[in-house]
Input
Amino acid sequence: MSGRRLRDAVKMVLTSGGNGEFDSNIHIVIAGLSNTYSQYVTTIEEYQVQRYEGASTLYGPHTLSAYIQEFQKLATALITGQPVEPGPQPPDLLDKQISFLTPVVMDATPSGVKFGDVHTDVPQNSTFRRGDTVTVIFWSACPRNDLLTEGTFSLVEIAGGKDTWVPAYDDDDFCVRFKWSRPAKLSTRSQATIEWRIPKSAAPGVYRIRHFGASKSLLGSIRHFTGSSSAFVVA
Output
């Protein structure tokens, strides 16, 4: 209901003002693009009930009214071409946050092994069918060294031609599962297990599984690495 009231208020400003640019067919969309979160925004009626959403509206019963007031100002500025003052900046409290998550000290691999090397590969010249699960285990490092935002820890590629591989699935897909583990709690070694449950819609062809990550040295430097399984066939 809060969203409906906010959309209606913005629509009224846009359709009643301006030079006829917006008519009654305009569709208002609320999109959170600022990467911020201010908890729930309920109507004043919902706030009075104090159920979960109302109790989680942190800025009081008139939160929605404040939102509507400011969005009406923005809508008015939009149709009149007037500049908008940026207003006060929220405080930066990053240096005041306390974390109980232990930091990554360092990552290591056994002698003669590099980060990204395959520990357990697919069988040579193997063929899988749709519905099968392909599992590959890589020597890895703590994923917290780099969360690979806009990237991926695991990638399934299909051969697109000679020496050409095309991304097919990654850890955005439900059929790909990425598991990270250490052999012991205080060990500096770790492994990444990538499982691909081959979907019924997978195209037949030659595939491989790749792993991406970043390792941390004792001095704190971060180094990215990648590894690849052997090729296998999906029939």
Remarks:
- Residues 139 and 191 are 5 Å apart (CA to CA).
- Strands lie at 118-120, 127-128, 133-140, 154-161, 164-170, 176-181, 190-197, 205-216, 222-228, 232-234.
